[in-house]
Design a protein that fits this description.
The chain is mainly alpha-helical. It is built from nine helices and no strands. The chain has helices at 3-18, 39-57, 61-70, 75-78, 94-101, 107-122, 126-148, 155-164, 168-179.
């Protein structure tokens, strides 16, 4: 493969990933959210949460962030299938979708991406467990924010996300999210 073909293959994946900026997280429509967050918005905050959880749990923050960034990239091709639809639909495994997505990338790029997706899907490393917790915690946080915006029917997302958490740090952050106020950071600090 020539360098130009390598670059074109990598750019193809980059363009495809850009679709995630426009693709909505569809499950929120069931809760009454008219314009839900995009998959890219979800992935961005998942990566931030993952970095923080990794630091708290003694995992590699950079690796966890990478797993988080890549965890939903397959949704450019299979979309964000709502939980209820998964009862009736069978999508290709994420690893298979990823293999197709990176088939024209330079081998080093394809190897990095496919290895990260495989690690995330296997959930056998501490980094993968933390990344999965970050994904679930981000969903919980988004539900809390939507509730504060007046969307009433979000408790099922909070409950299912919280039940899926594995690490002690994720449980502590979930507790803080559930007892905190999403806009409290706007308040000036108390005088010392």
């Amino acid at each position: 493969m020539s360098e130009d073909q390598d670059a074109a293959g990598a750019m193809s994946f980059i363009f495809e990933a850009g679709v995630l900026k426009r693709a909505a997280r569809t499950g929120w429509w069931f809760a009454g959210v008219k314009q839900p967050e995009s998959i890219a918005e979800h992935s961005f905050r998942t990566a931030l949460i993952g970095m923080m959880l990794a630091a708290m749990e003694g995992a590699d923050p950079a690796r966890v962030s990478m797993l988080c960034v890549l965890h939903d990239t397959q949704e450019t091709r299979i979309t964000d299938i709502p939980h209820i639809a998964k009862r009736y639909l069978t999508a290709a495994p994420n690893a298979a979708v990823t293999a197709d997505q990176v088939a024209d990338c330079p081998p080093a790029v394809a190897d990095v991406i496919t290895a990260a997706v495989a690690e995330y899907e296997a959930r056998e490393t501490l980094e993968a467990v933390v990344a999965r917790d970050a994904d679930k915690l981000e969903c919980l946080v988004q539900a809390v924010e939507y509730r504060h915006q007046g969307i009433a029917d979000v408790q099922r997302w909070i409950d299912s996300s919280r039940a899926a958490l594995k690490t002690a740090s994720a449980h502590r952050l979930a507790d803080a999210a559930l007892t905190g106020a999403p806009m409290a950071w706007l308040n000036p600090p108390a005088p010392a």
